[in-house]
Amino acid sequence: MFPDNESFIKRTVNRSMVCPHCSEKMTPTLLSITPYNDNQKYVATLYCSDCKYPIVKLFAKVWFSDNVNEINLEYNKGIVVDLPKNIEKLSPDFVIKTNRGETDKVSKMLLKPVIEEYLKDNDKLYTMSLACAYLGNDYSHYERRNLDKDIQDLERFIAVLISYISYELTLHEANDFIQ
After folding, report:
1. Which residue has the higher pLDDT, 19 or 94?
2. Which residues pair with 30 in a beta bridge?
């Protein structure tokens, strides 16, 4: 049997809301309410009536009261990258244009050796690629080393790297055109 707070939670979750996944206004379908943490918290499992993705809501019992409050959860909607068309055309599968004959070799290498071996002749490309690799790697470990940089720095570095590659491709296209 669910706790007395079930009716409050049902009223809260069965109202119109914006789906954290598809951003559509909808009324979710309640699947379950599960108490945990000695009945001090409750997890409501729902799903979007539009996109059918699951939604989780968390509620905590208010001390010295029979009420519960919803605890806001953040959903990551995923990363949408708007790549320049020349990069999308060049590399839908991230194949290295200038070294296509070495795809098998490159695909088996670690990232840093690929950068060091194939990008060393272009200082700007080498620097930005290595900076992205270092900072991205830093976020894959439990203990970060580069505390003076954050995810916004990584996003900025990647944006500059993409812009630089697009610049180089456009420059090569212009060079081919005037030849």
Report:
1. 19
2. 46
